[in-house]
Design brief:
The protein has 10 helices and 11 strands. It is an alpha/beta fold. The chain has a single domain, classed as 3-Layer(aba) Sandwich (Rossmann fold). The strands form 2 sheets. Strands 7-6-5-8-9-11-10 form a 7-stranded mixed sheet, sandwiched between helices. It has a 4-stranded antiparallel sheet with strand order 1-2-3-4, covered by helices on one side. The chain is globular, with a radius of gyration of 18 Å. It starts with a strand and ends in a 10-residue tail after the last helix.
Length: 262
């Protein structure tokens, strides 16, 4: 087992939020001040998505065929930006993370590539960024956690209103939440309010991560035949179980025998 620790308060924040990288059985993981895994990478396949929730987040591709810009709040080990940069070359990705140490370790230990014309990593406050940048992206991926979960007071109604405003008129939010979080229902209700209840939930584990999709306007086609065909085509191109995720959407959201109801 490989283990790397960084406890440099001047660089990486308080001691309790020290950055730790572990490696076991060919999988490298990032931790922030606790044993909770923030991000994982299979060293032999560094651009693929190791964790189920991260593959689940990519299900936004089921609902939106033309994506030109993705904004990610929360970098971690950079798994999702790396995947998009490597496999979806038509998409421009911006990532905002407040912790310079996380950015450094993502590049030194998790093979996050340097900035180029399709990838920009911004050191800054994600909440401030969305407030200052309305109508800025097609898809916003929300994946902000520290070692104790969602930072206190971050996911306010004002924050989710700003997230909605940061999306284009047909934009999608894909938010990673913890099902075991005592505030999960509160966060979900706030997302529903900001997006006029155009929301779908998709558990990716038990209790584990729950991906919440929220839409500025309803997708054009939510028929099961269309979603399953789209999932089948996407699964051929990427190593992601999209068909399974369609079934999880069916099991956890209002629907008829013909379509999802949003």
């Amino acid at each position: 087992m490989f283990r790397f620790n960084s406890r440099k308060p001047s660089r990486f924040g308080p001691k309790d939020d020290a950055i730790e990288v572990t490696e076991m059985d060919g999988v490298r993981s990032l931790h922030l001040g606790s044993s909770t895994i923030q991000s994982s990478m299979r060293v032999a396949a560094p651009y693929d998505l190791e964790l189920t929730y991260s593959r689940g987040i990519m299900s936004f591709l089921l609902f939106k065929r033309q994506v030109e810009d993705v904004l990610v709040l929360g970098l971690g080990g950079g798994s999702i930006p790396k995947f998009i940069h490597y496999y979806l070359r038509e998409i421009r990705t911006r990532v905002v993370d407040i912790n310079p140490g996380v950015i450094e370790v993502a590049r030194s230990h998790f093979m996050l590539p340097p900035d180029d014309d399709r990838l920009q990593v911004i050191e800054g406050d994600g909440a401030a960024f969305v407030l200052e940048n309305p109508d800025t992206t097609d898809v916003l991926i929300l994946d902000i956690f520290d070692g104790r979960g969602v930072p206190p007071d971050l996911y306010s109604q004002t924050f989710f209103d700003a997230v909605a405003d940061a999306l284009h008129s047909d934009g999608i939010l894909a938010a990673n939440l913890w099902g075991s979080d005592k505030n999960f229902d509160i966060y979900l209700q706030r997302i529903e309010q900001s997006f006029d209840h155009r929301v779908l939930v998709m558990p990716t584990g038990r209790p584990g991560n729950i991906v919440v999709f929220a839409f500025k306007r309803p997708p054009a086609d939510l028929r099961w035949t269309s979603l399953r065909e789209r999932a089948r085509l996407l699964a051929q191109d990427y190593k992601i179980e999209f068909l399974e995720f369609v079934e999880r959407l069916r099991d956890n959201n209002p629907n008829t025998s013909n379509r999802l109801i949003l």
